[in-house]
Amino acid sequence: MLATQQNLEQNFSRIGYYNEVTVSVVLVKILEVMFVAGWAGSAIVLLLTGFEDVETLLDREDENSH
User: Fold this and answer.
1) Are 28 and 22 in contact (CB under 8 A)?
2) Backbone torsions φ then ψ of 40, nearest 5 degrees
């Protein structure tokens, strides 16, 4: 009976460890997706503002904006 209880305790501790690892992996994947989305958004903003700056430097803005 004692051996069975020890086996159950070992299995429960393994299950708890597995759940913690699974939750950690999911959280890391979510952070990775958020990081890539933020990086892509920043790159798009930099490109758009770069094009606007080039237009400003070349004086190709609309006449209505002055």
Assistant:
1) no
2) -65, -40
- For the segment 49-55, the average pLDDT, to the nearest whole number, is 91
Structure tokens at 6: 């020890």
Q: pTM for this one?
A: 0.54
Q: Residue 14: what are its φ and ψ, rounded to 5°?
A: -65, -40
Using CA atoms, how far apart are residues 62 and 66, in angstroms rounded to an integer? Answer: 8
Q: Token pair for residue 37?
A: 């989305």
Which two three-digit tokens encode residue 47?
């490109």
Cα–Cα distance for residue pair 33/27, rounded to 1 Å: 10
pLDDT at 12: 59
Give the C-alpha separation, 54 to 61, whole Å. Answer: 10
